[in-house]
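To: structure desk
From: M.T.
Subject: fold request, one chain
Message: Could you run this one when you get a chance? Sequence is below, nothing fancy, just the single chain.
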Amino acid sequence: MFELIVSGGWIMAPIILCSILAFTIIAERFWTLREKSIAPSNLADQIIKLHKKKRITNEVIEKLYSDSPLGRILAAGLRNMNGARDIMKESIEEEGRQVAQELERFLNTLGTIASITPLLGLLGTVIGMIKVFAVITSLGVGDPKVLADGISEALITTAAGLSVAIPTVMFYRYFRGRVDELLLKMEAQAVYLVEVIHGDRQELKD
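Reply: Done. Structure tokens follow.
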């Protein structure tokens, strides 16, 4: 393996760096984008039960805000639950945009890695072929070993770039879909909370 890396030339260094960064982001996103830590199920129902008992206090709201991203969204609405429905809904939407941005953290970086690693591999291919033609120009085609070094460099960097890019694209698409799914679930709970509190919808019964 080490010999292959060396044979790929200096362009292998940024490709390897991209692979390490991509792996770190993928591991971090898998840990962060867990549904139970982002959007706990039935959280809105728990809040509604407290609201019916008139136990929604500033302490409860602050605890809810620090509990999870969904808690932040619902807490933003609860701070304005005594106001008009539109004001409560608007405060939820504002907090929701911030939460969405945080859930998408590092995904642009992952997408960038997926885009540039094939280009880095292609650059390595071009550099390798330039070396091949330079050898042919100066020495002719009499020494196959010298030509093979340049061709090897070209092929190795191409393979390395694609090996990093392909799984990175797959995980980038997966996490994009995961974020959209979590946002939809949080939106559903937030809308449910607003409508029940303002009397537009009946509370779901167990």
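Reply (cont.): The chain has one domain: 2-124+164-197. Let me know if you need anything else for the meeting.
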